[in-house]
Design brief:
462 residues, monooxygenase activity, monooxygenase, Cyt_P450, Cytochrome p450, globular, heme binding, three-stranded antiparallel sheet
Length: 462
């Protein structure tokens, strides 16, 4: 019997279906949909978006298409990806935080960055960073042990943990003196500037909106802060002839394999910002959602704890001995993909799934929809980690996109999965996790798939 079959035996209760926002009515007006997008983008889609292969609409003067078929997604993100660029709105929202880093760079600049950074994110390179992950995780578990039995905000704790891991893997130092400032920047941007306003959606990128002016002032303060982090790391130095000890060493030493070019100081700053923000925010959110689901599903939580106990090997078992823990994480990323929407604008004419695409048409690939689509998944709204266990049929490569796909797939995917799997195993292996209040936590789509509030949990030692 395969592992998947062991966890799918008939006497298990019906799977958990976590709460989600109500779907938008199909006859919602354009202005109503824009208002819904500002409040919560994932609540702006109606039932058709979860059922149809292609949903055609309008984005101001141009056509828009939601793509829910793997072949169409492959065409846009892989086969003809150079014809599809980020939308002006996406650039407006992300550029003040990420600059011209890997996530937003285009063309030759992106290719140079990708080639240069790739060696820093190989499994071997990530393996050298695992001790940083473990040290931060153990400190968080010790803090939770001291407060066991008292109400705890696990969202805040996971943000703190992911930030510590980001700081230590990037700079080899604790984020204690910098963590609050970094979190303040993230919260300020998320609450004030990340949600697109009407003019952000309407005006071309070269025409500044009032929000753009505020974003520019924010970026000045943000880049100064990142520069201070880099200066602190450089002041710490690196031993002569010593091997790289963190991502910063790897990025400073990195050279484009074709040109031999290194990163400039400005490019290095944007890469640091991208890696810290994209890494810590998405991982913290994924860990929160995993712990929330496990608190709602005690049977699955106990199965995960049993696996961690059986894996042994001290406090940090090998990843290959944690298939169920990894499956829980994979299923969490299906239900709550960090990047809930991938938006692309056509640079030129094309044909996608039989539809004639014109220049400036907008194509939407929404992992939130794709991962819950009724044609692609059995019981798509249910929390069923057995989908991802060894022996289970794998999902279509273009139907499951927690890290994107194609040339622009997230370069840090392996890093994030190692970090999150180790952290989830350690926390659930150490504590039984319960929700204190029964009010549902709703996902909201603002840059990433965030909870609408931070519920309180109670932890008891196992």
């Amino acid at each position: 019997m395969s592992i998947a079959e062991v966890y799918a035996v008939a006497d298990r209760p019906a799977p958990l279906v976590p709460p989600t926002p109500p779907r938008a009515p199909e006859n919602i007006s354009a202005l109503g949909r824009l208002a819904a997008i500002r409040r919560n983008a994932i609540a702006s889609w109606g039932a058709r978006a979860y059922q149809d292969d292609i949903v055609k609409g309008r984005f101001f003067t141009h056509a828009s298409y939601i793509l829910n078929t793997p072949d169409a997604i492959r065409h846009v993100l892989v086969d003809n990806d150079e014809n599809y660029t980020r939308t002006a709105t996406g650039i407006r929202v992300l550029q003040p935080m990420l600059g011209e880093g890997l996530l937003l760079a285009q063309g030759r600049v992106w290719k140079h960055q990708r080639r240069t950074l790739a060696p820093a994110f190989t499994p071997r390179a990530v393996g050298t960073l695992v001790p940083h992950m473990i040290s931060a995780t153990e400190e968080t578990v010790a803090e939770l042990r001291d407060s066991a039995g008292a109400p705890v905000d696990l969202r805040e704790k996971m943000q703190h943990l992911a930030l510590e891991i980001a700081g230590r893997t990037m700079f080899s130092f604790e984020m204690g003196s910098h963590g609050k400032a970094l979190r303040d920047f993230v919260i300020e941007y998320g609450t004030r500037l990340a949600s697109p306003r009407f003019l952000d959606l309407l005006l071309p990128l070269g025409w500044p909106t009032p929000q753009d002016i505020s974003r520019a002032f924010f970026r000045r303060r943000w880049t100064k802060f990142v520069g201070e982090l880099i200066a602190a790391r450089r002041a710490a130095g690196k031993g002569e002839g010593a091997p790289p000890r963190d991502l910063f060493d790897l990025m400073v030493a990195a050279r484009d394999p074709e040109t031999g070019e290194a990163f400039s100081d400005d490019q290095l700053g944007d890469q640091v910002a991208t890696m810290i923000l994209a890494g810590h925010e998405t991982t913290a959110t994924a860990l929160f959602w995993a712990l929330y689901l496990l608190a709602l599903d005690p049977r699955t939580q106990d199965d995960l704890a049993d696996e961690v106990r059986a894996a042994g090997s001290g406090e940090t078992p090998a990843l290959d001995r944690l298939p169920f823990t990894r499956a829980v994480l994979d299923e969490t990323l299906r239900l709550y993909p960090p990047a809930f929407l991938i938006a692309r604008e056509a640079a030129g004419p094309d044909t996608v799934a039989g539809h004639a695409i014109h220049r400036h048409d907008v194509l939407l690939i929404a992992p939130w929809l794709l991962h819950r689509h009724e044609k692609l998944w059995d019981n798509p709204s249910a929390f069923m980690p057995s989908r991802f266990l060894p022996g289970a049929p794998p999902p279509d490569r273009f139907a499951y996109l927690p890290f994107g796909v194609g040339p622009r797939i997230c370069i840090g995917a392996h890093f994030a999965l190692v970090e999150a799997t180790l952290a989830l195993a350690r926390v659930v292996g150490a504590f039984r996790i319960e929700l204190i209040d029964a009010a549902p936590v709703m996902p909201i789509g603002i840059v990433t798939t965030q909870p609408d509030r931070s519920p309180m949990f109670r932890l008891t030692r196992r």
